[in-house]
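Progress against Task 2.4 (sequence-to-structure conversion) is shown through the following example record, which the project officer requested during the mid-term review.
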Amino acid sequence: MDLKQIARDTAKVMVSYLTYQAVRTVLGQLRETNLPRSHWLNAFATREKLQDGEAFLKALLQAQPDLAVRVMTVRQHIVEEIGEFLPEMVNTSIQQSNIEHRRQYLERATQMTLSDTEAQPESENSAE
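Structure tokens generated for the chain above:
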């Protein structure tokens, strides 16, 4: 297991997700202040594959540099606001999710075991 590669891949996914959130925020702002520009950015985001945040920003810098700077500024603000407590939240969320999955699995396994033991006495009674 290459933990450094996992960390790099995770960071790339986080950057792309934060870019997506920044675009959503800018779109919301533009809907209130400049509807035609909002429509343009929405169409651009649909066309330019927002899933890769860095490639999206490169393309946006070519097309509309001022919007790209705005998206980058919002993205930076978001990461500054959530960066401090995000690792703890992710860790806690994964722990809680794992506990819940294990609990559900154990409940199913216990119910199946109980069903099996309840079915056995019936078959023993019919053999007598």
